[in-house]
Description:
Elements: H1 20-29, E1 41-42, H2 47-63, E2 75-76, E3 84-87, H3 91-100, E4 120-124, H4 135-138, E5 142-144, H5 145-148, E6 153-159, H6 169-176, H7 184-187, H8 190-195, H9 207-224, E7 227-235, H10 238-250, H11 271-281, H12 288-298, H13 301-318, H14 325-347, H15 362-378, H16 382-391, H17 395-410, H18 422-435, H19 441-459
Parallel strand pairs: 1-2, 3-7, 4-5, 4-6, 6-7
InterPro entries: P-loop_NTPase (IPR027417), TRANK1 (IPR039904)
Amino acid sequence: VTAAGDTAQTITRGTTSFKFAAVSAAFHLAGRIAPVETLTTNWRTHGGVQALCSHVIRAMCRRFPGAVEKLPEERAHFAGPPPVCLATADLDAAAQLLFTGEDSVIESSANHLTELGAHQCVFVRRADSRAKLPAEFLSSMCFTVEEGKGLEFADVVAANFFTDSDAKPAEWEAVLSGWGHQDEDAANDDHVLLSAGAGARDPLVSAEREAVMLEEIKLLYVLCTRAKRRLIFVESDDRARAVFFDAARRAGLTTARLPPGGARFAEASTAEEWRARGASLLSDQKTYVAAATCFRNAGDVVGWLRATAEARRARAVAAGPAATAATRDIDFDGAARCHLMHAAAVAAPAIGGGKGGGSGSAAELCGAIVKAAYCLHRLRRHNAAAAALELVGCRCAAAVCYLHAAVAANDDNAEEGTAGTAAASLAAASAALRGNGSAYATQSTELSMAAAAGGRGAAGGGGGR
């Protein structure tokens, strides 16, 4: 068994105290020796980004000495430019600079990009921060830090991370106060880390605020480690950005300007690059929305329908108690429609617009129909769900849906009018089971009898469940 990871990236609630020493101890109790090896060479990120990441780790250790395992400092194998802290009037001005390489607005042209490339993305502090982004950022891949954990990109734009942070500027000042005021050797000395007055824990700060500050600096670290080549911070609030921008500049970790020459930051990508990125993002429900963006930018109708359907279904399923039934139903309805259109596009190239249509497998087709049936079932449109399931040979599941429809009809809650009577649904369930083979002959016969005798009872409201 090999376990690998970075304890400074434990940002999931309830995992912030995880340490590899605990894993080693578990093997020791089982009579095995599990040595912990430390990897100190970073082959992914260059020295410019790695220097900032290392300083974030130092700040974390100074302020929260027991929160992460103290390890030898990681070094980058490659040299590279420092991250950029752009101080612009607002996010629109930052987008203008990143997409055109110019400070002033220029006329639209064929060379003006409308989104970042497939190897570039935007990170925000929270989901509702997306609504504040310029159109250029919204048409690009956009993640919260939690959604993007585990992913990596050539270029990352951190938009309003500090503006939308749960930590106050004064709290960030307490965490980053050591930057630029101590030499590197002292920063790596455990004794200094535990006793430095600037970073020591303030006894007047509540445990709740300490937890918030620890979570925020870990989120900052995870965000920084997503970038392999270029990392850009843009902030719209002067006061919120001042602490980090000043501390990073004081420590020589960042620059305030993009490389000279007027070259734009945004890069164009091919349809194949977008399609490949979208396919990779379909493996995690947290990134379905970004996958849909990729397929849209690739012009892949089938992929966009699939990712959009998955995103809406996942959102409906994950909706908490605060969500209303109407809100969930809107997402389930949208997901059902997209799943069915996805199935149609897979089956017919003409529907897919010639871009991916008709190229899917039978498994993809059946999967889309079954997922549509699930959404229809959750919408209490049981007969429609059953009909979809019968299309792909899932007769037992179809029978269950027909039985649900019968119960709903018997309770005068049929959503399909007179065609959704209990007798008709029971008969359909019987037919579905008969079609599934002789193993269900007994159940099928009983259902047929119930359908024949139960219609009158259902009409009178006396049928049993």
